[in-house]
Amino acid sequence: MIAMQVANLIAEYYVFLQLTDEEELNLDTAVKMTESLADHLEEMDKGFLRELVDAFPVIGEEYSGEAREVVRNIAHSLYLEEALAADDPVKLAELEALRDARG
Amino acid sequence: MSSPVQPRGVEGGRPGNQPIPVTEFVGGVGEGLHEVGREAVAGVRAALTTNPVTTVRNTGRGIAAMIDAAIAAEDTPARIQASRAASAVADASARDLGRATATVAGNVALTAAPAAALSKAAALRRLRMARPRTTFDPPQIGWVKETTRSRKPWKAYNDAATGAQPGLAPTLMRTMADGSKRPVKFDGIQGDYVIDRKWKVVDAPRARAQLLRQSKVLAEHRLIGMWEVPTPVQKAKALELLKKMNIANIHVKVAKP
Fold it and tell me: ipTM of the predicted structure?
């Protein structure tokens, strides 16, 4: 339950960073803060991060259009599965192959 | 290998007939243009319309690739020159090439043209010889206020980029489709490298857009980008992303925090 609430908060912030108009938010600042968000998430307890990663696709359904895709893809965009598999070379290789295939 | 441009010796090409290394190695064609280039841009343009070295323009990317190969092991200044020359030669109109002749890009292009008939080692030597007299405009770096705050290590890392100024971010102006200009922010500047420090590489939509934006503005300014990342893991991610996005004018290196 807490994971859902936190994931909601992150999704909201992430959509703000990715989709706010350039007139309102400097694009390079947005990327900088996206990188910062990725850093924060990677540092999280792995069990909790797993819950967050699983929550994003569910939360994405509450959004529409471009925002929906953006939220669904949070784990991919921020390399979160890779963060979860940091100690598992086999899983990392698999994730890299998946990423390559996706383009 | 044959080439439409054959170096030839020039006697008495300079007043007083004092040989200087650059005109010696560039050969007749190069020297002719070099001398003209010292006179006036208009003169260069006139020369280019009749001089065989204009074939440089037509060989386009071929010359660019040759320069890349020849100086693969060279140090930074030569790399920058060649990158600029490649860009200038590949994209140049006759007018551009004429103008570039008075700059480093033209000099390297001239160096490269006769080298087509010679060995790679000779090309390397020529580039090295060309370096001392090359001059080019300083990068058009602007500065904007950078007020992002964080207590996390990424902030200190970004602020520690070479050439960074406290509270300011170096920028290059990008030209929009409608002709207006907007700044693209970086973290530092070192010689002709414009540095963007990335504590974490991400593949978010705006990160990809930033990559394209940076590449475009760097090309406009004939500069090279350098992403500095803290670990080899981040470097691998960056290289993969650059490859996917087909970006060649941004390099990546590990810069330990």
Answer: 0.94
Confirm if B48 and B133 have CB atoms less than 8 A apart.
Answer: no
CB pairs under 8 A between A and B: 72
Among partner residues B200, B209, B240, which is closest to A39 by beta-carbon distance? B200
Number of residues assigned to chain A: 103
* pTM for this model (two decimals): 0.63
Q: CA–CA separation, B185 vs B91, rounded Å?
A: 26
Q: Which of B147, B202, B229 is the best substitution to test chain A (most A C-beta atoms within 10 A)?
A: B202
- A27:B210 CB<8 A: yes
B111, two tokens = 């160096």
**Option in A18, A38, A40 nearest B206 (CB):** A18
Q: How far is A74 from chain B (nearest CA, A)?
A: 8
Whole-number Å distance between alpha carbons of B107 and B37: 10
Higher pLDDT: B178 or A15? It is A15
Strand, helix or coil for residue B250: strand
Contact B152 A40 (CB under 8 A): yes
Whether pLDDT at B200 is above 90: yes
Tens-digit pLDDT profile for residues A68-95: 999 999 999 999 999 999 999 999 999 9
Domain boundaries, chain A: 2-102
| Chain-centre distance for alpha carbon B226 | 13
